[in-house]
Structure formats: C-alpha cells, structure tokens
Amino acid sequence: MAGSNTEAIRQLSVELKRAASLLDEPEALETGSVTSYISEQFVSGTGLLDLKSKGKEPSVPAINDEEGSRDEGDIDGEYEELPLDDSSDNESYDEDDDYDDTIILEWLNSKKTRAYITAKYEPDHLDNVPGLRPDVVPYDHQAAGASIIKDSLDSPRQGIIIGDLPGLGKTLQVLMAVASTREPGDGPCVVVCPTSCVSQWKQEAAKFFYESNMKTIVLTGEAVSPVELFKYQLVVTSYSQVVSELVRYRKFFKDMKDYTPGAKLPKRPTLTLLSAIFTFSTKLMGKMLVLDEAQLIKNPKSRSFSTMSVLREYFQSCVMLTGTPLDNTWKDAFSLLKLLRDHPIFTPRTMIHAFVLPGTKKKHGSRPVSTRLVRFVQALDATMLRRPQDTIQALLPTITTDVVQFIMQPADIHNSNEKFDMYLKWQHMSKKKKGKMSAKARAEEKNAGFGALISATHWTNHPSLRDILHFEKEAMKKSMYADEPADNLDLSVHDQEYLQAWRGEIAKNRNWRSPRVDIILDTVNRHRDWRPDDAFVIMDESVFFLDILEIALSNMFDPIPCFRFDGRSHPAKRAIILDKFRETPGAKALLASRGTGGVGLNLQHANVLIICGPWWKKSWEDQAVGRIYRAGQAKPVFVYMIEARGFGTGRFKHCGVERFKMKKRDEKNKLNTKILEGITRKDDEEPPERRCF
C-alpha cells in the first residue's frame, strides 16, 4: 500500500511539473479524439492521470514556483503602466544580433499577407445560420464579419482580431460563426470576458439562438468538472476566473514541493479550463477561443496574458474582440498578435526592431514613424477587421457632446496644484535615480508619488476624499485597473466601520457639496428640465466620489432613483441591478465606475452619459460612450464631459492634474488614431493599394 502511495505521489509530481512547464513555455497541441481519451486516462483508486499510456514519461523542466510578483489587481496589466512618465514608450532595446529584417519584409510583401487584407473587402455573407431565431436579422456588416471569422478558423493565421468600433454588434458575429462551424463531436467555444459582461453573453446567446443550438454554461466560482464542458456549445467565463485557476494551481504546486513524506497530502484544486485533461489530451478543447475586450490582456508581463496564452493552445483558433485595440500605446498590439499564427512578430523586442527606425528614439521615443509606421499599419491590416461606426450610421440617433467646465475654489486649486507638484517632483527624481535604487525603495517612492497624484485629484473632486486616501489608493488600483470587487481589499471590520461612518457623516452634516458635485447636479437638473424622461449613466474612476454623488443626488429637491454599478457589486447581482435600472420608468441614474461599467456593457436604455472628469486615455472615453451610443438606441444621445478650470493668473490659472491628464490623453491618442484610421474601412470599400517594402 505504501509503495502504491509513493508511486501516486511521484506521478502527481511529474504531472504538475509538466503542466507548470506549459504555463511558462506553451507547446502546440496535436489533434485527436478527446472523448475516448478522457475515459481511458484515470488510474483506479488514485484519481491521477495515467501518464504511462502516453508511451513515455514527460520531461521534468525547472520551474519557478513563486506565485507571481503582482497582485490580483494586475488582471488587465494596466497598473504597471500608470506612472505616466512615458517610460513604457522609451524603453532601452539593445541591438538584437538574431533579428533579421528580411523576414519581416518577406512577410509584409507576401501574397498571403496581401490576401488576408483583400479578403476583408470581398466578404461573403454568412446565411442560413443553424439555430438562429427567425426574428433575428443580422445587419450586412454582421453577416460579413461572421463569414470572415468563420474563414479565419482554417486559415494559417488561426484566428483574427475583430476591432470594430463599439456598438457594431461583435457578439452576434461571433455566435453566428460558432453555430455555423460546429460539427458533431466538437468541444465548446469558450468566451473569456470581463466579469461584468458574463451574464450579458449568456443573455445574448439565449436572445439570438435556440438553446438546442447554443447551450450555454457560465463558469463562476463553483467547481465544474472539465468533462461537463463537452455538454455545451458555449462556455462563458471571466478573466479573473481563469487567472484564479492559475493562482490555485501554483499554490498547490508550491505545497506539493514543500511536502514531506508522512504528512497530509495537500488538497488538489479542481481546475476546469486549465485541467490536466486538456494539457495531456491529443485533441484540442474546441475550435474557437474568444477573448472579449481583448485589450485587457495587452500587458505581456501580466498573469492574464500568460494564462490566456496557455488556454489558447487548447483551441484551433483565437478570436479577439476589442473596440480599442490600441488602448494605451501602439505596443498594445503585441499581445494580440502573439495569440495569432503565421507571422514573425514573436517577441516585444522583435516588434520594436521591425517597426521603430534605428536612431529615432531621442526624437520620437520608441514609436513607429515614416516607413516603419506604414509597415505597422500593414501588419495590423493583415490581422484585424475594423469597420467605422458610420457603417450603421442610418441606425444610430444623433449624438451631442458638451464640455461643461466649473471654476474651482481658491483653496482647492492651491492644494490640488501643490500635491500635483509633489507628484511631478517624484517623477523627476524617479527618472534621475533609475537604476540606483533597490526594488523596495523604488516601490515605496512609487507609492508616495501615486498617493500625491490621488490627493491632487481629491482636491478637484471633494475635500472629504482626503480623509480616506489609503482606501482610495487601493480602490483605484482595483477600480481603475481591474474589474474586481472592492471587497478584495481585505478590509478589516474596523476599516469597514470607518468607511461607513465616513459616508454617514457626509450625509448627516449635509457635507456633500463641492464645485464638481454642484456642476454635475446642475447638469442633471438642466437636462431634466429639457427632457424629463431621459435616463443617465454617470461614470467616474473613483467609487468613493460616486458615494458622495449618490448622497447628493438623493438629497436633491426633486431626487431621482439611483442605482450603483461598480466593483463592489457582486458579479451575480450586476445583471439584477441593470434589470432594475431598465425597468424603472422616467428619469433615473446609474452610477458606474469606469473599471466595471466602462467596457462591454449594452446600456441602450440610457441615453445621457456624464463623465465626471478627464480620464487618462481617450480609448476609455470612447468605450464609455459606446455603452449607450450603439445599434438599438432609440433616443438622441447626450454626452457631458466635466472639467475643472482655474481663474486669474499664476498658480490659480489652471488645474494642474486635469491639464496633465488631458495632455497625456491627447498625445497618446494622436498616434493611435493615425494608425487605426489606416485600417478602418467599410466592407464595400476598395482594398488599399498594395504596399511593398
């Protein structure tokens, strides 16, 4: 009996190390038969996979058993970017002796690359889709997009990026392709999306298709056997859910490594999508992996990208959906290209060498210019389908955008600018000391600089926010950079009571007023006087500022119903919140954090958007507008952008932090817009002239 246990533990150790190596160096999987394989691979009594049936024992590579250097808050990889000093655009890349520019040129000039581009402008329309409800009539661009997705499955590229602007109905295009390509014995299509969009995918599948043709399961926190997935055509889950499987696996691996004979065996976690069944299977899990809001994996150093890279190996193709493919910089495209095949952009270093002219870093940073910019546009054109919003212009209502400015109080603008100057000083010193500080010292300095930046914003929003600076810093990491509930902050009972008392004092003392709060309430009331039945979505980066705003809206002379939608709402309750908001008649307001409500949602039952202040990225603003300005919107759309401004001259003339945000936003948007305009065309346009390099 003891020998049997020893052998079982040995097999488990080999299996874990094999799976771990795939997390670090994913290997291509071969096709075969999975249904018979699953039933044959278990050893009676141990529950372990029978590795001997593979014919040879897998190698045991070295593995770093650390669980990662980042918090769960890096789920979309943005937090590491935000010190906003453009360091991510000015990295030092040494000359690469292995880089061969002729390989890039051959790919860009090849007939195959040209064929990828021209095929987008000669698309068939996908008709007679199995299981599509008779009352669902796709638009022409959706039928064309579905056909292009279908064709991409069998192409050497093995997938495609669908970069249509928000509101063009990417979900239906994907579901049509899934239904049209499914054959008996196929595994499921897996959709990975932000947590706030999971229930929406399930609802859309039921709305467009009969259940018999699009049977759907949603993977949440509950354990599901991987074998169960093959009963469904569609599996919907979130990025955080899949990453959590990786975290549980790594913890288990560490516990097994530390295991001593005679002790209790660590409990093996139940893994669903990252199960060893798929790691060792000779058949792919399914034909299509769909990554919705794919810009969330743009950081190639993040856990989310690493996990999706592993998951991608289990599928024939990868379809990535994003209305903002260049969310921050042009280099965001690397992570998306990495999940496609049949191109030579293998590493970030290769991408820099291919698309940045040598010797231009000092003048332009690590950015493509001149002929290298044309190269990059061609590379994206061969891998991405992007149609403009005016593709459905006849289906869209009018849209009006107004910038609403308010004048800050002298004390507030003085304190805000003082804190912002501290941030600039930290930024300058950080550059000066780069490479001369320990990692710990740099982290402490970075935290102090980030705190000064948050404080500067506090003074522009509401002075009471300075009383919760610590909470705000942690919440901003979650709300701004990840779709995670704020209760992941592990607040103590004392901290929770403190925040509750903070909100209570504001309400009790009627201390909700500030110049920004006043202008938002004034904007709501002026619009209501004009159009009394319109519904509002009010978005901000700070859930705590939205707390203050909720109190203020509830205490107006003529209050309107308010609903909250942010990371603190449990994912299972978010669909209920949206249903209640939709069903409430007349004027109403949905207070949504940018991190949770700003991407992926369909909110056509509201037609007024108020963005409470400037954001760091134009793509964030575009995504927020796209929540209400989309096909199916029956009312005129109104967008109000709130901005602070100073008065007089000298230090009071400008609000430093907001001016800085807008400058950074516009600088990055200028290049991104130029690149994306080069590949954005309607289906009936002529293909671009062939470019040779």
TrEMBL record:
The cross-references to InterPro entries, in alphabetical order and at most eight, read: Helicase_ATP-bd, Helicase_C-like, P-loop_NTPase, SNF2-like_sf, SNF2/RAD54-like_C, SNF2_N, SNF2_RAD54_helicase_TF
Q: Does the keyword Nucleotide-binding apply?
A: yes
Helicase ATP-binding domain segment(s): 151-343
Keyword terms of this UniProt record: ATP-binding, Helicase, Hydrolase, Nucleotide-binding
List, for all copies, the residue spans of the domain called Helicase C-terminal.
516-687
Q: What CDD domains does the annotation carry?
A: SF2_C_SNF
Annotated GO MF terms? ATP binding; ATP-dependent activity, acting on DNA; helicase activity; hydrolase activity
**GO annotations of cellular component type:** nucleus
Asked whether the keyword Coiled coil is assigned, the reply is no
Where are the compositionally biased (Acidic residues) regions?
A: 64-97
The UniProt entry's GO biological process terms, in alphabetical order, are:
DNA repair
Query: Which Gene3D superfamilies does the record match to this protein?
Result: P-loop containing nucleotide triphosphate hydrolases, Tandem AAA-ATPase domain
Return the annotated region ranges for Disordered. Answer: 49-97
What is the protein name stated in its UniProt record? Putative dna repair and recombination protein rad54
